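Each record in this resource describes a single protein on a pair of labelled lines. An example record follows, reproduced without changes.
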Amino acid sequence: MQEVQRIAKEISSLLGVPVEGENYFGERVTYVFTPNVFEDKSGYRAEVVKLYPSVARCDLRFGQYSLASLASWFEEEERIGEAFAYLRALPPSVKVTLTIADKEIREPDDLLGMTAARVAKGGIALTAKCRMEEARDTAPIVSAVVSALGFCLLLNGVYEQTCFKAESEGALVEIHAVGHERSRKNRLICLGHYGARCMACGDDLREKYGDVAAGLIEVHHLKPVSKLKGAAEIDPIKDLVPLCPNCHAVVHRVDPPMSIEKLKERMRGK
């Protein structure tokens, strides 16, 4: 598997939507990732370069056909609130900057009242920069792209769809939201905050098994979904944690599920 395809697969797994990748070579290698959830040419793409071994910069490119997808950014206050909540949940290593018509958008209220026409006239720029404490292969690239695209996809309401266009031929990939319609949004925010390392055993499965396991991680509800009544509100940071498939299976071997601390004790032989 080529590196760009492997990175695209990892990004797709973390975002929960199909993503296509390509790269081209210049002064630096530039990777381009496109979420395959919009009609042809109506969306946007992420262009990312690795500035240093531990630093990557991602710029979203909005073409002349992007206004159709941008229009929904300014329509629903709830979506705007969710998108900015996602930004606030990102780790300190990531900084996302959105500028519209030369104005930096810092708060949800800055987007309210904006229009696609104003965006077309004044221009739009969205940048995500990831600076990690140590060099970690392509991890800064993945983090920067997921942060930028995750924010935009939340604004577009993409996670409210039940299926996404996955191939140029028009095939559809259905991604099920088990139990609660907000589960995909919550997964995105949880992984954006904690990353893809298991909170119990500490494993990043890509480091353990190689590229084949890139992005392989599950999200565990600290409050069992089966015990929730109706459409209960879930805090993706307080109520969810990333677990590898093995640890996730073990905590659910008992009812109620084992706590993360109890699982850690068992792994320490206590």
About this structure: The chain has ten helices and eleven strands. Residues 163 and 175 are 6 Å apart (CA to CA).
